[in-house]
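STRUCTURE:
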């Protein structure tokens, strides 16, 4: 099949590579390069880098809704458009161009977790399983008919980064199966149950702020979900403290919410709304991620202080 691919972040790269190995990719559409770090140097998206390494033409429209861009896509005479975390809402006029329509590789078992951050939200909510849904694109976000699903368990301490990497590979495999069945006319579209849909909002830096009135398990899930980026965080003596690893301690302890109960080589034990949380791996501004046992060798963390202040 002749395909045009739409995608931007690392999640989309294995999908593009699998598509290129099995079909003819006429072009890869990705977001414009963005300035990064202090030098504000323009950095190409992961999909752009992958496409160029595969000698695939790259398109980077500021908007995918212009008549000029839509006319450009028609020139490829593609059989299918494949989308994986592209980052823009695509108009109906674009979605209807290819013979077999436009399909999306989504990182959840729809109708659960429509939206921008399904992988992280599933972990934050304490889900035990997640997966991939191959679906037709629709003008409403992730609301199209479902074509094929693949389920996978979520590891007990599997981070958002680790799960996203696994799902990207599963998504690539599931896409290739779906395209074969689609071409053979063996896929039966299934409508989503609108009463069961949930939404996974875009992750922002504010998402990572730890609320110690929540249970230790909820906080741990947040920490795992946002590892490695953008990372959950709190404040100690007004300084930002990123947290990458923790453990739930079920024992109830006396103290205020966010109060440091004890500090030793095991970690920083903190009072939460339910149970206590043992913070085991941290990062302060300008330093590397390190175990608390290493950090306290050169820095003092005081018992009785309230995290978040």
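SEQUENCE:
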């Amino acid at each position: 099949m002749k395909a045009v691919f739409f995608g931007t972040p690392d999640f989309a790269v294995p999908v593009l590579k699998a598509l290129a190995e099995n079909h003819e990719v006429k072009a890869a559409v990705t977001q414009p390069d963005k300035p990064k770090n202090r030098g504000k140097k323009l950095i190409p998206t992961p999909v752009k880098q992958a496409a160029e390494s595969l000698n695939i033409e790259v398109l980077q429209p500021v908007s995918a809704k212009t008549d000029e861009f839509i006319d450009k896509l028609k020139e490829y005479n593609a059989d299918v458009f494949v989308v994986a975390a592209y980052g823009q809402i695509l108009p109906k006029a674009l979605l209807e161009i290819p013979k077999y329509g436009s399909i999306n590789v989504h990182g959840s078992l729809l109708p659960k977790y429509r939206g921008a951050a399904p992988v992280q939200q599933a972990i934050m909510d304490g889900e035990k399983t997640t997966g991939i849904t191959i679906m037709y694109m629709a003008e409403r976000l992730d609301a199209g008919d479902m074509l094929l699903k693949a389920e996978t368990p979520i590891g007990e301490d599997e981070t958002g980064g680790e799960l996203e990497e696994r799902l990207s590979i599963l998504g690539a495999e599931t896409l290739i199966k779906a395209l074969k069945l689609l071409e053979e006319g063996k896929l039966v579209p299934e409508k989503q149950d609108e009463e069961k849909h949930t939404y996974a909002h875009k992750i922002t830096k504010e998402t990572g702020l730890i609320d110690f009135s929540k249970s230790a398990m909820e906080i741990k899930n947040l920490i795992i979900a946002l590892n490695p980026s953008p990372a959950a965080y709190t404040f100690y003596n007004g300084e930002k403290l990123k947290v990458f690893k923790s453990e739930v301690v079920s024992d109830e302890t006396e103290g205020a919410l966010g109060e440091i109960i004890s500090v030793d080589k095991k970690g920083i034990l903190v009072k939460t709304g339910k149970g206590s949380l043992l913070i085991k791996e941290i990062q302060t501004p300008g330093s590397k991620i390190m175990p608390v046992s290493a950090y306290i060798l050169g820095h003092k963390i005081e018992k009785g202080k309230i995290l978040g202040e």
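REMARK: The longest strand covers residues 239-249.
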